[in-house]
Amino acid sequence: MTNTIEALQAMPKEEAIACAEEVLLHTYNRYHIIFEKGEGMYLYDSEGRKYLDFCAGIAVFALGYKNEAFNTAVKNQVDNLVHTSNYYYNFPSIAAAQKLTRAAHMDRVFFTNSGTEAIEGAIKTARKYAFNKDGRTDHEIIAMNHSFHGRSMGALSVTGNPHYQEAFKPLIGGVKFAEYNNLESVKALVTDRTCAVILEPVQGEGGIYPATEEFLKGLRALCDEKDILLIFDEIQCGMGRTGEMFACQRYGVDPDVMTVAKALGCGLPVGAFLVKEKAASLVAGDHGSTYGGNPLVGAAANAVFDIFEEEDILSNVKETGAYLFEKLEAVKAAHPQITDHRGVGFMQGLEFAEPVGPLVAKCIENGLILISAGTNTIRFIPPLIAQKEHVDKMVEILESCI
Ligand SMILES: *Cc1c(COP(=O)(O)O)cnc(C)c1O
User: Fold this and answer.
1) Cα 261 to averaged position of ligand 1 atoms, centre (Å)
2) Which is nearest to 161 in space by CA: 200, 114, 125, 113?
3) What average pLDDT does this structure show over 374-400?
4) Nearest CA to ligand 1 atom 15
5) Which of 262, 270, 300 is nearest to 383 (CA)?
6) What is the spatial distance between Cα 157 and Cα 172, in angstroms, rounded to a whole number?
7) Is the dihedral of CA 72, 73, 75, 80 positive or negative?
8) Is there a contact between 160 and 177 (Cβ–Cβ < 8 Å)?
9) Is the CB of 128 inside a 6 Å radius of any atom of ligand 1?
């Protein structure tokens, strides 16, 4: 059976969801909500219910829904040109590349369609860099336990979560896992074949664990000493989420390779990997993408950078993020079942003594969209425009549900 969109909209919700479950691959256990529109910090479902959003489509929609400047930029580009392939140049992607490389302190960028593809590019960059030095094809990568880098085979191979990996082996070879924030555990894995160390400056999916300054600085020194590429996955913690444009900038440590996605296109599918000049190992024929960096996503990313500046998004994250921190400290103090509070800016987590799935579901029933990170941690990753009043409202609903 097929339906028009209008016919689906006219159905009772559960009937439309049954249509979905008949044809979608069942890789998600979805909430029984169909969202139809958004405005600012709020989402509206098909039954007209309003939800305060502290998830932002998993750290994607940084600018808030229905941002007029963003929507106008995207609409204008749709009318001009959507896609041409990478055999030619296009103006929006040149502008986006300039702004992104400047913000990231990097020299060159390759646009991808997702985070996981950005990780693939970073892995290929590292292997090629090492290959250029010694011609060997047995190079190793050191990744972190409890990391998350995506679902494609390469990205999965550096994701330190055996549960995600098991059924899909064999993965790409030569990956070893160290303990996050433990420099000695990384040093112990380095060999003459190590080509890269990859990590998130703030671990996201793994439960909101920020790196220590000592760890990042220690890794930078280690990688410099051994000529190993340092890869920072800023896909979730980047693009202003911690109050700096990229989380590593809080520590003044630049990587050799950086991956970005999620908020980069604010909902349009665009990711990127960026390299310092010395790590620009991929050359013509080594890598490609049919869609990557097309004019439409270029216009979106370009607009995102402009709006970040115009609306001074970073200042808001610093100020309101500090307010969120205070409020969550108070929530933690009031509830003994909360065992930890971690994070910074608009990337914070509350860890509970038990799985948080039921609490998240209850908050959603009460008009607050939250998301977990790992099984026991609630993650707070709102659009970067959230104000104190939104934090207050969020805390009110959360406390009523605990
Ligand atoms: C989401 C995420 C990815 C994967 O991005 P996709 O766009 O889902 O492929 C990789 N790394 C981190 C840190 C992420 O949060």
Assistant:
1) 7
2) 200
3) 98
4) 236
5) 262
6) 6
7) positive
8) yes
9) no
